Amino acid sequence: MSANDPAESVPTEADSVDAPELERRDGAPVNKLKRAIFSVPIEVVVTVGTARPLIGDLLKMERDHLLPLDSALNDPVELRVKDRVIARGELTQSEEGRGQLAVRLTEIVDISEIL
To answer: Are 90 and 76 in contact (CB under 8 A)?
Structure first.
């Protein structure tokens, strides 16, 4: 177990996001459970593109080899939870700077039908 594993990190009060307001019927246990789920961390994967090299070509690759992707530099990226696309956006630098990547959301998929 590594200290950098996001699945092992415990969110702090400063990291918490305001959960949507849910019906609060006298603090019923069901509603407490519904509210609690909003503090559970989840992994979001950002998909930039895909490549489909032949196995032989993949085995020949060396350091500094370029692997062309099926997307252009300015194409939108997809945000996924498991295999489901939840949003699309564009890569940008984080507002904090330091060269950290971020995604500016441009489209959010309507997931109300699956909830």
So the answer is: yes
Give the domains, in start order, of the chain with CATH numbers: 1-41 (no CATH), 43-115 (2.30.330.10)
Token pair listed for 26? 């006298």
Q: How far is CA 111 from CA 2, 43, 103, in A?
A: 33, 17, 19
Model confidence pLDDT, tens digit, residues 27-80 = 566 677 777 888 889 999 999 999 999 999 999 999 999 999 999 989 999 999
Q: Name the strands in the sheet holding 84-93, side by side, starting at the edge strand that comes first in the sequence.
A: 45-47, 77-81, 84-93, 101-108
10 against 76, higher pLDDT: 76
